[in-house]
Amino acid sequence: MDEACRILLAAKDSNDVAYLFLLANNLFKVVSAERVRSDATPSENEFASALKEVVLRVQELEGPRGILGQFLVAADLLRSSRADTKSKNLDQATKIMRRVVDARPRWVEGLQLAGDVRSAAGDAEEAVSFYRRAIAEGDTRVITVFQLTQQLSQLGRFTEAESEFQRIAHLSQASRAISEFAISLEQRKGNDARALELARDTTDRYPQDSSAWLIRAQTALQQQAIAEEGGPNLVDEAEECYRKANEISKGGDLSIWIAYLRFSARFRGPEETEVLVDQLRASPLSEKSRGLLTAQAYLSLREYPKAVASLTSASKAFPYDIDILSALYEAYRLSGQGSLALAALDPELGAEEADFLLDGGEEDDVAFGAD
């Protein structure tokens, strides 16, 4: 894809709007919105810069009311909203796409993008409406059908989701994302055994994909919860999957650590979890993440003093971090040390003042007029 974009970029100064629109759509596929800017690769920075130029060029050629230019602006707002969830880019993208769809109600690309925008905004109902309109107008792209099935599933309309999914089910052998959705669909239908079969098949086909191993571990545990007595011990399988996922990610995936530590605390106990915590301390995760996860592991084991020690150490490195202070408050609270819990949220609050607040903030009764 990178090389294809470079070939197309050779004519980025073209006056052909259709060509520039094609170029912009290809650039969107290679410019990752999931990375923060400082983490972008050199090629991503190059393509991101080129994307801005092409969008501006299309707007210049079409004029302010041009449909293709408005489409590209909305697509870029959607892309950037994934990197900055607090921005109002989705609201702006929604307004633009409503204008685009009103102007060209049968344009499948516009309908599909409108669905993507509403999906990102959490409006699954409207997203479904846009995706179905796109399909009705002849959109046969796998991504549109896939997005439709995901939104239907999110709405709990599993029969409809399964019906739509049959259009692309044959592609699950070639797409990990479709495989993962097939697994989740079987789970939501209550077919946990079938879901586990699919999860095992996915790790066989994608043995170096850490998320595939993570999903298999979680699927195995879900099947274990309903397994009949005397059946296979799926806990061991889940543990091996967590270990494999962590190994593939080189200990750098926060979501894997969270699930792995939670599993260990629940199924393996203090000794094995302590070994895992030692591995966590040596992981490439940030110091803050290591401190919070270590504390969470100890809280799961009800080893409150160790949790407090871990968080106290982390708070020295990040003295005003709300996540660490909140976790420290929770550790003290669970250990029954209320005054220290309040002091954790306000380091300048003394123990006596904290006790005073815990007592309701009332002084001992004193007779009116007493000295």
Structure description:
The chain is mainly α. 71% of the residues lie in helices and 0% in strands. It contains 20 helices and no strands. It has helices at residues 2-9, 17-30, 42-62, 67-81, 89-103, 108-120, 124-136, 142-154, 158-165, 176-188, 192-205, 210-226, 234-248, 254-267, 270-281, 287-300, 304-317, 322-334, 338-345, 351-358. The N and C termini lie far apart (84 Å).
Strand content: under 5%
Compute the CA-based radius of gyration: 27 Å
The percent of residues in helical segments reads over 70%
Q: What profile does the largest beta sheet have?
A: none
As residue ranges, the low-confidence spans are: 33-42, 353-371
Rough outline: globular
Write the layout of secondary structure elements.
Layout: H1 2-9, H2 17-30, H3 42-62, H4 67-81, H5 89-103, H6 108-120, H7 124-136, H8 142-154, H9 158-165, H10 176-188, H11 192-205, H12 210-226, H13 234-248, H14 254-267, H15 270-281, H16 287-300, H17 304-317, H18 322-334, H19 338-345, H20 351-358
Characteristics:
371 residues; 71% helix
Quick recap:
71% of the residues lie in helices and 0% in strands.
